Amino acid sequence: MLYFLFQLGDERYALAVNRVRRVLPRMLTRPLAQAPAAVVGLATFAGRPLVLLDLCQRVLGRPCRDRMSSRVMVVQLSAGRVGLLVEGLTRAVSLSEEQFFSSGVELPEARFLG
Questions:
Q1: Cα-to-chain-centroid distance, residue 35
Q2: By the 8 A CB rule, do 28 and 44 touch?
Q3: Residue 109 pLDDT
Q4: Whole-prediction pTM value?
């Protein structure tokens, strides 16, 4: 299966390409009042509102750095589309299921880490 590789700090993560609708450069956003720190704001994508979430802020407690490799992955969730701001998204790679393994760590409060 094909995966996008990206960074959160010094760690590498992968997201299946079939979950991603589009990869975009960093976008201009309007702030959302009283939103959590990880919510960058509201952007417009394909003529519709798109909530942009900063995964570095959510996972590392600091905003994603403004780099050439910082990208927004537009993903489709059951509730609608959301933009995920990440660092170091530079390529897609083919990986087999056997190349992934469980860490054995259970984090119920961080299910978003898959």
A1: 17
A2: no
A3: 73
A4: 0.84
